Description:
The complex is a heterodimer of chains A (248) and B (204). Chain A has helices at 8-34, 42-46, 89-113, 119-145, 156-166, 173-194, 201-223. Chain A is mainly α and 248 residues long. Chain A has a domain at 84-248: Up-down Bundle (Ferritin). In chain A, helix 1 (8-34) runs parallel beside helix 4. Chain B is mainly α and 204 residues long. Chain B has a domain at 43-184: Ferritin (Up-down Bundle). In chain B, helix 3 (45-70) packs antiparallel against helix 6 and helix 4 (76-100) packs antiparallel against helix 7. The longest helix of chain B has 26 residues, at 45-70. The chains are: A mainly alpha (248), B mainly alpha (204). At the A-B interface, helix 1, helix 4, helix 5, helix 6 and helix 7 of A face helix 1, helix 4, helix 6, helix 7 and helix 8 of B.
Amino acid sequence: MRVGRDELRRQMREARVEQRESMGPFRDAMMRVASGDPGFNRRGLLIAGGGLMAMALAACADHTPKPQVDQGGATAPTTVTIAPPPVNDVTLLRTASSIEILAVQTYQEAIDSGLLTTPEFVEAAKLFRDQHDEHAKLFAAATTEAGGEPYTEPNPHIKLEVVDTILPSVENELDVVNLALELEDTAGGTYQVFVPMFTTPELRQTIQSVGAVERRHAVILTSALPEEELFPSPFGNVTLAVSAASYV
Amino acid sequence: MTSSTDPSRRHLLVGAGVGAAAVAIGAVPVLSGVAHAQSVSNLSGPDLQLTLFHRSIELAFVEIYGMAIDKKLLDADETKSAALFQSHHNEHAVAAGALAGIGAVGTNGQMVNTYAGRIRVANTVDALLDVLFDLETRASSTYLLACGTYEVPRAASFASAVLSVEAQHATVIGSARGLPVGAFMPAFESIVGAYTPAEFPVLT
């Protein structure tokens, strides 16, 4: 069973239009959440509640203050280590936002690069970009809901270690698809790993309402790569989930 | 579908230094801990009942796919994919049983009966794929709902790992069927249409 491509281009375009139209009220609701409209039933929109509850995980950073300068006054250069943020609901949501923003940015660069020459790929890239944008808005609103400040930049660690590393070697359409697949697998795997780390069932559902869509993106992209195994496992693969070092 | 293990895209990651680090995560994916779950199941109450429900419907999916394949309407590639998806559902049933720690719950008979009737009257490939698409779409909704229902994180992890793949089943079938993109590529996964124990009771 191959992923059908008949009329895919037309359908992708229509889907983007439908999405824009259907997301109108959603966007409005997001704005109300972000503005702190007290009369708005945020639980109904986000299926996400709860406050900011710190979650103690083994992976948490050690925040014990450490000297960063040789106490003996030596002049040797020192290394400043930036500890990752504490792992809690807000950090996980901010990290999810940062991944979505990076995906939006990367898809846009791919579209602008001119390397995508197959119309179906162009349309898919536009649809996926738009959906990641909606995901970013959802996570931003959920971050606010959880008492945090939404993260508004692309994830610096993944950008540096994945996108910026891979981009110089991207020379053709399949390279772009590979890069996109890498990001989708990163997002899908990361959100799946986040599920048991969230402190509330509502937030677990929120993250996977997006995570499952990244998996759908991934399977479409994989289908474009004949040598890739479409289903390497009966369960969601988390191999590319990001480590705590990439949390923001 | 291909079965090659040549990860051509991985060459792009050479030197990225992310893959190895990505594996080491604080959270333990439940499926890597199936054996653990078999020996240390502490689910109880609603979480246990929900897991038993998941086992019963996964076993039903296995039977339903068998019926679909036996119709012999699918071509060779489609049959191969259907058999693969069937095997996935069997794995999911095994994992649910391991998580529950109780293997006594069998196939959800009401679900099998419901879908048997639909498959019986599906006399074209498209009609058959429509039935399977509906099944996988509702299954995805079921596991998203479960992510927000389970209290025990390990159980939610199970639901999320299954959801990841069943949503992909739905996408592949919907695309192969030629459905509108919005049907198999929504902006957000939905809980609408989730199977419930009220609709398909678990008989023990």
